[in-house]
Task: structure prediction
Amino acid sequence: MQVILENHQEYQSIAEVLRMFFLEVGKLESGVILVADYEYSDIVLHSVVEREVSVEQMRNQADQTEISVQSRIADSDLTITAKVVPSALRREIKRQIYFLLSKLTGIHYPWGSLTGVRPTQVAYRSFLENRRDKNQTIRDLIEKWYVAPEKAEIGLKTAVAESEILSDLLPELPMLYIGVPFCTTRCTYCSFITQDAINLGGELDIYVEALLQEITEISAYFKRISKPFQAIYMGGGTPTALSDQGFAKVITAIKEQVPQIENCEITIEAGRPDSITPAKLAAIKIIPEARICINPQTMHDRTLQTIGRNHSVKDVYRAYELARTNDFSSINMDLILGLPDETGEEFLYSLDKILELNPESITIHTMALKRSAFLQQQHAAQYLKLRFPDRELSNVFNIAIKKLAKQDYQPYYLYRQKNVRGGLENIGFAKPGYACVYNVGMMSDQISVVGLGSGSSSKRVEGDRLERIYNSKDLTNYVERLAEIIQRKIDFFAKGLGI
Result:
């Protein structure tokens, strides 16, 4: 297949859509994308913009000049045309390419042409354009963006919930992420930079000291400029993979060093049940209202062994009961849909067991297919094919959403990842009053986030403009260059408007 681009250079955007339908997308040449798929080798697809549009125009939301966009498959009657403003050009090109390829191949994804991380942004924009008419918005998502009806409904519902949470946040105040990139073992589906804490020994203590220095100095800077944090999230990895002493030091620094607004939301990802100890829970309790996460991922011992998690279902119950005994009143639990060799019925069994525990929030992740994960290395031939639509997984997700709704869990944030199983998504559900503000603010790209720790990212938001910087992923490099990393971060936020 050849995809010919005329008057634009949206190679990467189109390649992103092509990868939804073809396992390997070929070269990007001058004005042409080549796809190595013998079944469609004779197909020529044209993507045409009536005239060239500059990057500056595409970034300018105020430019309402209409531009004609057309995509067509040569020697066929498959064609689609629309007029859009420059800021909508990229999204329209992707929509048209998706429409043609879906017609050509017969492949239809649950989220249609919404290939980005945050489909709820499109849903909410449509909601406003349709004067908050929910029925018309759902029709718009189905007919214009080719979203499956059940996804249009949950997407809009979540978008409205996200908007309500965002309306209570202060755009001028940042949020804080503290990263601990260690786990007791590495899951076979994981490609994160997490390292095996068991084998690191004394290096964990060195990391803790470096992290404490970064917390102290960055906190001092934000105190000086009178910008307290409105939400704090300690994640990983698994923060509780640290020693009891090291973990307690970090929690104490959060309480005593970090500037916070009154009633600042603080979430500690306790994570794996086998790493949760009475001492760690006691450390967290110095922050009385702290939220915690206990993440089983599945309630089947066989699956836990398959994915390389060094704990059992009994450990999940033990950790949960220990947390309740210590008066934790806001617990989130994660499950993953689409784990290896696990059926839809087995996933729903896990969900039922979690619902029996009655945590305040539950997050359902769909397994993402990472190229550097152990599973990919072991099953490369079949692994990436799992990203194609999967009716069973979609049906199971729909059943799960209904089960959660019956017990008063409502969706409050949603995001998607590349190469996720079945083209599905991740959704956070919470009982009224228990939604995680950090999750919504971080995913919205409307709130600045300060990231501390190895591999963390920071983003500065100024209106529609967003910039990012990253801490080194290499632990040794992070520790050795810490003074430089801290100063670079201070300089980065000093450039921001009001920060």
